[in-house]
């Protein structure tokens, strides 16, 4: 303990440009996450939904559906 320095000097933090550097980093991360989520949403949500709609309307007969609803009494004016 006899050779221990009386004061310890800490290096000063770099504050000049810190705000701009933080904004650049956060903006880069935000853009990257947005791109990843957009691509994932497109492949996992939109593509199956579009395929399901295409499959439904491939065999859909509007006139048959109208007649079925009319027979059930859904349209009182017809």
From TrEMBL:
Gene3D superfamilies per UniProt: Mitochondrial cytochrome c oxidase subunit VIc/VIIs (4.10.93.10)
Metabolic or biological pathway, per its Swiss-Prot or TrEMBL entry: Energy metabolism; oxidative phosphorylation
Transmembrane regions listed in the UniProt entry: 27-45
Keyword presence, Flavoprotein: no
GO CC terms: mitochondrial inner membrane
SUPFAM superfamilies linked to this entry: Mitochondrial cytochrome c oxidase subunit VIc
Coiled-coil regions, chain positions: none
InterPro entries assigned: Cytochrome_c_oxidase_VIc, Cytochrome_c_oxidase_VIc/VIIs, Cytochrome_c_oxidase_VIc_sf
CDD domains, per the entry: CcO_VIc (cd22901)
Pfam hit, one: COX6C
Main localization category: mitochondrion
Localization annotation: Mitochondrion inner membrane
Membrane topology, from the record: Single-pass membrane protein
Acetylation keyword on record: no
Keyword terms: Membrane, Mitochondrion, Mitochondrion inner membrane, Transmembrane, Transmembrane helix
Family, per entry: Belongs to the cytochrome c oxidase subunit 6c family.
PANTHER family xrefs: CYTOCHROME C OXIDASE SUBUNIT 6C (PTHR48416:SF1)
Name listed for the protein in its UniProt record: Cytochrome c oxidase subunit 6C
Organism: Bactrocera dorsalis
């Amino acid at each position: 303990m006899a050779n221990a320095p009386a004061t310890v000097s800490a290096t000063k933090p770099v504050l000049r440009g810190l705000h701009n550097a933080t904004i650049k980093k956060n903006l880069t991360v935000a853009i990257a996450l947005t791109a990843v989520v957009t691509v994932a949403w497109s492949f996992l949500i939109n593509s199956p939904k579009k395929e399901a709609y295409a499959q439904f309307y491939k065999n859909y007969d509007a006139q048959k559906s109208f007649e079925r609803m009319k027979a059930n009494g859904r349209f009182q004016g017809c």
